[in-house]
């Protein structure tokens, strides 16, 4: 049984925070390393879309769990959710990405755990 519509579903930032914050799913940030370092959602795990497209496995914290993919604006996370669904992962994307996350007033931290910014 899947928690999400596989590979095609989208969540608002608030829904994503709720589902990842309660442990129902893991938030997977698919942006590139400089973007991640500048600012990401607390508790997110990181795997750039370029590595995912090259066949990289999910990070251990994301394996065998529903995945909520997030990027800067939502485009890459939709690609990631579709790719993950094709691999049998229960995955959805966050509408509007980290831009919408920050606009909703949700926390963003940098690589040191301090106040981050969306790059």
TrEMBL record:
<dbReference type="InterPro" id="IPR001763">
    <property type="entry name" value="Rhodanese-like_dom"/>
</dbReference>
<dbReference type="InterPro" id="IPR036873">
    <property type="entry name" value="Rhodanese-like_dom_sf"/>
</dbReference>
<dbReference type="Pfam" id="PF00581">
    <property type="entry name" value="Rhodanese"/>
</dbReference>
<feature type="region of interest" description="Disordered">
    <location>
        <begin position="1"/>
        <end position="20"/>
    </location>
</feature>
<feature type="domain" description="Rhodanese">
    <location>
        <begin position="21"/>
        <end position="110"/>
    </location>
</feature>
<protein>
    <submittedName>
        <fullName>Rhodanese-like domain-containing protein</fullName>
    </submittedName>
</protein>
<dbReference type="InterPro" id="IPR050229">
    <property type="entry name" value="GlpE_sulfurtransferase"/>
</dbReference>
């Amino acid at each position: 049984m899947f928690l999400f519509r596989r590979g095609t579903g989208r969540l608002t930032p608030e829904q994503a925070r709720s589902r990842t914050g309660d442990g129902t799913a893991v938030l997977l940030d698919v942006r590139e390393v400089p973007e991640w370092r500048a600012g990401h959602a607390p508790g997110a795990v990181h795997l750039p879309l370029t590595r995912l497209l090259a066949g990289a496995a999910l990070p251990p914290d994301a394996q065998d769990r529903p995945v909520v993919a997030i990027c800067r604006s939502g485009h890459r996370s939709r690609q990631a959710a579709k790719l993950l669904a094709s691999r049998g992962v229960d995955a959805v994307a966050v509408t509007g990405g980290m831009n919408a996350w920050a606009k909703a007033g949700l926390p963003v931290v940098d690589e040191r755990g301090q106040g981050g910014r969306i790059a």
